[in-house]
Structure formats: C-alpha cells, structure tokens
Design the sequence.
C-alpha cells in the first residue's frame, strides 16, 4: 500500500506483481475503488507490474478542496506516475478512468505506451448521463440511485446468482462520500476528449460489456471512430463492472495489448 502526495491531494495506490515486467496502470470508475481490479490482477501479476490507485475521494484517496475537473483527475494520475517513476506504461481505465487515461495520453504522452479503454463512451454522452445522475443523486441520495447503478454494473444473471456480492458492491457505492461522487459527476459532465482521441498514437484496446445498454455500445463505437485501426471488442455477458464479473477475458486482452506495446 502506498500513499503518494500529488500537490494538495494524497493518492492511495497499490503495487503488485513482477517489478521487472512491463507496467500496467489501472484507474477506477465512478463510485468504486481499486478493489474492482482484484480478479484481473490475479491473472496478471506474474507477467506484469500492476499499479492501481483510487481516484479522488474514492477508497483511501483524498478528495481535495472544492471541485475537480477531468484535467485535475489527469494531473493526479500524472503526478502519481511521476512520483513512482514508472516511465512509459500501459494505462487501463474503466468509465471515468478511461477518460482519464485518454487525457493522460494527450497531455503526458511520454508516460503512456498503450491504452485500454473499458466501458468508456464519448464525452458528450458521458456528460448527459452525468448531469442526469447529478440531479438524481442530489434529490435521492446515493442510496436512492444505488439499485439502478447495480443494474448498469452487473448483468441480470450475475445479480441473480451472486446477490450477496452485488450487495457488497452496492455498499461500496453508497459509502462513497457524496462530495466525491459529485466531483466525479462534474468531471464527467465537463469532459471534452475529442482532441485527445484524435491524438492517440499508441496501441489501443477498447472493450465494452455486451450487456451494456445499446445506446452506450453505440457511444463507445463513436468514441473510437477517430482512433485509427481500433474497434470495440464486446465482452459476452458483461455489464459495466466487467473486471469484477468477467476478469479472464479482460486479462487475456490486456496481455495481448502489452505484447503489442513491447513490439513497437
């Protein structure tokens, strides 16, 4: 466990795996923390060095003072990697973490050797969704929206067969500080990544659960339209929290991406 000060924010991170292997950095989605990657890391730790961290206000990371934009979240990640002296790394992000990874590749390209965008949609769609969630969370609180979020995080078979586990993830969401959730929503609402998408020049993997809503699947395809030679791979039966429900396919795809990065 590491606590790394990046400006005024104390960032919580974990380092696992083979320190002599390529570095893979994982960034979490809104409402979850670095524990969502646990099962993926179990597949990878012998073949790569994995760094996971908690976005602002999530897990054990500071929230910081006031609000934060996507640029601020990107600065948090860049500062963490500078402090840990990672050099070029493959960055994997889920949802908000994917947009953070994209922005890092544009603003600090020397830190990025490859990108994996999981469950990541175009910024306009992310903005509309974030604004709707912000209105609901303000009126109903996180507990009021939690059941709907679980339906987006996990497909119905997983929810039915592993109800206790889903309840645990629901508790993670509802125990996220409301201010931290709002910071993430504001960052999504203000996200503008068109230039970052157009600037991608590294091997890139885009994956989305097949059980994500049709609109989100279309938005994921729209996101990568300007990344040359990249398509969206669907994870059969997965919803948004695919690293929890379907870690094997994600780990296999990440190993292939790391190989592609090494061969450049």
Sequence:
């Amino acid at each position: 466990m590491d606590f790394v000060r990046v400006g005024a924010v104390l960032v919580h991170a974990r380092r696992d795996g083979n320190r002599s292997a390529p570095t893979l950095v994982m960034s979490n989605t809104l409402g979850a923390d670095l524990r969502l990657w646990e099962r993926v890391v179990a597949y990878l730790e012998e073949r790569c060095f994995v760094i996971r961290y908690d976005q602002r206000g999530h897990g054990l990371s500071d929230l910081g003072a006031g609000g934060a934009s996507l640029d601020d979240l990107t600065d948090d990640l860049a500062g963490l990697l500078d402090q840990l002296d990672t050099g070029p790394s493959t960055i994997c992000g889920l949802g908000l973490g994917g947009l953070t990874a994209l922005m890092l590749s544009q603003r600090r390209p020397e830190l990025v050797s490859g990108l994996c965008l999981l469950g990541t949609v175009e910024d306009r769609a992310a903005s509309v969704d974030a604004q709707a969630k912000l209105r609901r969370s303000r009126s109903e609180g996180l507990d009021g929206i939690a059941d709907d979020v679980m339906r987006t995080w996990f497909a119905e078979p997983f929810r039915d067969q592993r109800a206790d586990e889903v309840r645990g993830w629901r508790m993670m969401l509802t125990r996220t500080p409301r201010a931290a959730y709002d910071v993430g929503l504001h960052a999504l609402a203000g996200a503008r990544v068109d230039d970052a998408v157009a600037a991608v020049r590294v091997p890139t993997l885009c994956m989305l659960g097949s059980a994500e809503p049709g609109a989100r699947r279309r938005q994921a395809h729209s996101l990568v339209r300007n990344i040359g030679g990249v398509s969206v791979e669907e994870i059969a039966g997965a919803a948004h929290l695919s690293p929890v429900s379907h870690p094997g396919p994600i780990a296999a795809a990440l190993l292939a991406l790391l190989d592609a990065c090494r061969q450049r």
Summary: DSSP finds eleven helices and eight strands in the chain. The first strand starts at residue 2 and ends at 6. The chain has one domain: 2-262.
